[in-house]
Amino acid sequence: AAAAQAADHPHRPVTVAHRGASAYAPENTVAAVDAAHRMGVAWVENDVQRTKDGKLIVMHDTTLNRTTNVEELYPDRAPWKISDFTLGEIEKLDAGSWFDAKFKGERVPTLERYMDAVSHNDQKLLMELKSPELYPGIEAQILRQLKEEGWLDRQHVKHRLVLQSFNGDSVKKVHELRPALKTGFLGTPAIADLPKYAKFTDQINPSYKTIDMAYVSAVHAFQGAHGRPLEVYTWTVNDAPTAKKVASWGVDGIITNAPDVVRNALKDS
Ligand code: G3P
Ligand code: CA
């Protein structure tokens, strides 16, 4: 019965472009946001961290060397931690060439620049606080910036914005600072621990490799912080068979580098 119920799940999962449409453009750049937009994908996921001089930028790794030419420009600054570089230094980096020569000159976006692109495209944002334990106070700082960008109005808070983290304390802090905001916890808590998370989250967002249909159903049975069933957004699903499988489990969102692949896979579901 549980299987039939999940297979008949009335809602097709939402597709979220992971780090933007990162199979097609350099991750966490404006180019990746725009690539998702051209595919008609409303939701983008990003990762936010902080520079040495306290500015918020969008990048996944806590170091700059995988996704920029930092080693070339600053050879003596290993291990190239974001927190050891000023925004001025980071803005000199090329964040596109490593992916494909045609993206040469793409920059590491400030959060402000990134949000401008998302707003301009009328997209929605699943924002990750990446390694927030490295950046004390980043929760309040992000909320201040969201407010400045006009992203804490009713419309955005209700329909267009979710803040998530692997760091449960950080998610809890965001919820306490701004209770109206939707939040997600990245990970796969034991079912017995879900009531604890449900007090401050709306979503439980696990790797698809760690879950099954029973887990998704178990999460849905709890009410989240805003009184609706806890949702499941799973990552990172980049192929059609996996997309179909997790959709049949009843997940609410699929986070993917290749939103076109996921969308095509779910077309007839
Ligand atoms: O949004 C889910 C996913 O981004 C979590 O993993 O390492 O890509 O940030 P990671
Ligand atoms: Ca992420």
UniProtKB/TrEMBL annotation:
Q: Which Pfam families does the annotation name?
A: GDPD (PF03009)
Per UniProt, the keywords (alphabetical) are: Signal
The chain positions of domain GP-PDE read 13-266
Matching PROSITE patterns: GP_PDE
| Descriptive protein name | Glycerophosphodiester phosphodiesterase family protein
Taxonomic lineage from the root:
Bacteria, Bacillati, Actinomycetota, Actinomycetes, Kitasatosporales
